[in-house]
Amino acid sequence: MPPVDQILLQTLMKEQRNSVPSLSDFLFFCYISVTSFLHFTFAIMGHFLCAAFSFYYKGGALLTSPSGPGYHIMLPFITTFKSVQTTLQTDEVKNVPCGTSGGVMIYIDRIEVVNKLAPYAVYDIVKNYTADYDKTLIFNKIHHELNQFCSAHTLQEVYIELFDQIDENLKLALQKDLNVMAPGLTIQAVRVTKPKIPEAIRRNFELMEAEKTKLLIAAQKQKVVEKEAETDRKKALIEAEKAAQVARIHYQQKIMEKETEKRISEIEDAAFLAREKAKADAEYYTARKLADSNKLKLTPEYLELMKYQAIATNSKLYFGDSIPNVFLDSCAFQQAELRTAQETSLSSQEVPDTSAESHLKPKESTG
């Protein structure tokens, strides 16, 4: 029974000895009795939540068999228990001091470590590190790793450049040690807030960030100007290439036109040459055929016939020795001249004393 209830009960008993009990005293006595009974009942019963394991300490010694969720009976003042959660839980480490390599002391306001304990490893971890294992395995390790990290880097690196790596580095370092010291305890995530730095340094950082922002703005403006100049240059280059391509196309077109004209001229010349050659061949063939026909046609008999036809159609006749000379290189006239000479010799033999003229005067024909 609790000490307060015992004092109240003793006081009530003394008053009952000294006075006659009344109805109110009886009711007060009943209330004290019921309260004491309930306190005693809950003292021998333990209520454990779901997703948690409870370990009993009997006389300070840890029992090997944990209890699951539900109501369990235990002996008060002799048996105590500790509940260990086996689901995801978040442990917070607040106001962690950290000294940089430059000697500046900074404070990290809050570090959250999300971890999970496997059910099979609960007994070993509680046995080795008690039910408050997170203080030994997580909190102390967080302080150590942060101090190691800060002492190896400057304020600029911790506050700005390498701040995004602190979470992952802490998680890897914690998990590496837990795999050796407490298998079954897994670190899911680590979240670190921005460090608190001295006010003067913070203002300097703000000024530095403002100047850096101005520098970035100036650099961006310069990039924009360079980009515009590059765009203009590319535009001019494209226009020049376009003009060159157009000129090249016109030049090629003119060359093609000249080549076409040359080809047409060559074709016309070839056609003219072919026509002239065909014409010359035709004339040559005609002349050759005419010569062949004349060769076959101009026989001595035919020439004799032509001579007689010419003499017959002639309007004037000449007699004498010079008449055959008119027909030069004519075999027919040579034969006629030979026959005329023979006839003359014969006539001279028959009429030797002829004094008449040897030449006949030609008659003029009226036709």
UniProtKB/TrEMBL annotation:
<comment type="similarity">
    <text>Belongs to the band 7/mec-2 family.</text>
</comment>
<dbReference type="GO" id="GO:0015485">
    <property type="term" value="F:cholesterol binding"/>
</dbReference>
<dbReference type="GO" id="GO:0032933">
    <property type="term" value="P:SREBP signaling pathway"/>
</dbReference>
<keyword id="KW-0443">Lipid metabolism</keyword>
<keyword id="KW-0735">Signal-anchor</keyword>
<keyword id="KW-0812">Transmembrane</keyword>
<keyword id="KW-0256">Endoplasmic reticulum</keyword>
<keyword id="KW-1133">Transmembrane helix</keyword>
<feature type="transmembrane region" description="Helical">
    <location>
        <begin position="26"/>
        <end position="57"/>
    </location>
</feature>
<dbReference type="GO" id="GO:0031625">
    <property type="term" value="F:ubiquitin protein ligase binding"/>
</dbReference>
<keyword id="KW-0325">Glycoprotein</keyword>
<feature type="region of interest" description="Disordered">
    <location>
        <begin position="342"/>
        <end position="367"/>
    </location>
</feature>
<dbReference type="Pfam" id="PF01145">
    <property type="entry name" value="Band_7"/>
</dbReference>
<keyword id="KW-0446">Lipid-binding</keyword>
<feature type="domain" description="Band 7">
    <location>
        <begin position="51"/>
        <end position="209"/>
    </location>
</feature>
<feature type="compositionally biased region" description="Basic and acidic residues">
    <location>
        <begin position="356"/>
        <end position="367"/>
    </location>
</feature>
<keyword id="KW-0753">Steroid metabolism</keyword>
<dbReference type="InterPro" id="IPR033294">
    <property type="entry name" value="Erlin1/2"/>
</dbReference>
<dbReference type="GO" id="GO:0032991">
    <property type="term" value="C:protein-containing complex"/>
</dbReference>
<dbReference type="GO" id="GO:0005789">
    <property type="term" value="C:endoplasmic reticulum membrane"/>
</dbReference>
<dbReference type="GO" id="GO:0045541">
    <property type="term" value="P:negative regulation of cholesterol biosynthetic process"/>
</dbReference>
<protein>
    <recommendedName>
        <fullName>Erlin-1</fullName>
    </recommendedName>
</protein>
<feature type="compositionally biased region" description="Polar residues">
    <location>
        <begin position="342"/>
        <end position="355"/>
    </location>
</feature>
<keyword id="KW-0153">Cholesterol metabolism</keyword>
<dbReference type="InterPro" id="IPR036013">
    <property type="entry name" value="Band_7/SPFH_dom_sf"/>
</dbReference>
<keyword id="KW-0472">Membrane</keyword>
<dbReference type="GO" id="GO:0008203">
    <property type="term" value="P:cholesterol metabolic process"/>
</dbReference>
<dbReference type="GO" id="GO:0045717">
    <property type="term" value="P:negative regulation of fatty acid biosynthetic process"/>
</dbReference>
<dbReference type="InterPro" id="IPR001107">
    <property type="entry name" value="Band_7"/>
</dbReference>
<keyword id="KW-1207">Sterol metabolism</keyword>
